[in-house]
Design brief:
Number of strands: 16
Distance between the termini: 18 Å
Strand order of the largest sheet: 11-14-13-12-15-16
Largest sheet: 6 strands, antiparallel, barrel
Structural class: alpha+beta
CATH class of the largest domain: Alpha Beta
Strand content: 25-35%
CATH topology of the largest domain: Gyrase A, domain 2
Oligomer: single chain
Helix content: 10-25%
Order of helices and strands: HEEHEEEHEEHEEEHHHEEEEEE
């Protein structure tokens, strides 16, 4: 994990320029054919049916019950769509898509032997333009809550050093995403989670698009109820290390409220720790006082840091 000085530097670099993160955990596969966007639109939660070439979207693939199968980034091109996803989930995702390919003019290609780079920060658009000039495919995608990020499928390993920006390591991204409140699949949520439980409904789900697999559950939960638990951002007092799994209680000592899913030290001057936690819905309002591992804590605003 990066130290607090590193996090402060990363936050400043994102505000003033761009952070370049080579994502070895992500891969991509193409979808071609005249129906590629319309067909894909029926299998993901975001509205991707009318993406113009060069545009992109962050979305989820969910099952019939609305539970998350994988997160993905859609990058539209002139003659194909690139689906970017966690490499470990790509075989499952391709198999899932193939099961729902019947008469449509669409073809699911093999995974590409190419790396994925994500640029975060104020200069993400400039990084994307430079990447395209060097043969990369990519799009600006809004998914972190802190402006657009450029998701780029790079042509070769020497691609990243040629771009202008501050390198972002995996540990650095882990600290930054927690500070920003970006959940991680397999850490903060999993295959048993609904989009609302992972707090992804505002960035990864369209509630005005046409039908898609799993829509009924996701839509009805949004319009007629709420998730029993929800991922929230916490500020936790104290400098001692805070680990995933730490139990959460109310300030009066009532337990069983939830648990920390990931945590990182706060930047210098702020003190304490920042965390993501799965908490019962009734206690997710910003400002709610909680106790985490016998330390005072509070629910943070969604756009804090």
């Amino acid at each position: 994990m990066t130290n607090v000085d590193d996090l402060a530097t990363l936050l400043a670099a994102a505000r003033d320029g761009a952070l370049l993160h080579a994502r070895a955990d992500l891969g991509a596969f193409p979808v071609t054919g005249g129906d590629r966007l319309a067909w894909l639109n029926g299998l993901v939660t975001q509205d991707v049916g009318k993406l113009a070439p060069g545009a992109g979207a962050y979305s989820l693939a969910v099952g019939k019950t609305g539970k998350i199968m994988a997160e993905l980034w859609v990058v539209a091109g002139s003659d194909r769509v690139l689906v970017v996803a966690e490499r470990a989930r790509i075989p499952l995702l391709r198999e899932h898509f193939d099961k729902h390919l019947v008469m449509e003019d669409a073809e699911i290609g093999e995974p590409l032997e190419r790396g994925v780079l994500v640029a975060h920060g104020a200069s993400a658009a400039e990084v994307l333009a430079a990447a395209r000039a060097r043969g990369g495919d990519g799009a600006l995608v809004r998914w972190t809550g802190h402006g657009d990020s450029a998701v780029i499928v790079a042509p070769d390993a020497g691609f990243v050093p040629a771009l202008e920006g501050t390198p972002l390591t995996d540990d650095g991204w882990e600290a930054l995403r927690i500070a920003w409140g970006v959940p991680r699949f397999g850490v903060d949520y999993d295959e048993q989670s609904l989009p609302q439980e992972a707090s992804l409904e505002t960035v990864a789900v369209s509630f005005s698009k046409g039908c898609y697999l799993g829509q009924e559950t996701v839509f009805m939960l949004e319009k007629r109820g709420h998730a029993r638990k929800k991922l929230v951002r916490l500020a936790v007092d104290g400098d001692a290390a805070l680990s995933a799994g730490a139990e959460i209680a109310l300030s009066d000592g009532t337990g069983g409220i939830g648990a920390v899913t990931s945590a990182t030290p706060a930047p210098p001057g702020a003190g304490g720790w920042l965390a993501l936690a799965s908490v019962k819905h009734k206690h997710t309002t910003a400002g709610t006082a909680l106790v985490v591992a016998d330390r005072a804590a509070r629910v943070r605003e969604a756009d804090a840091t």
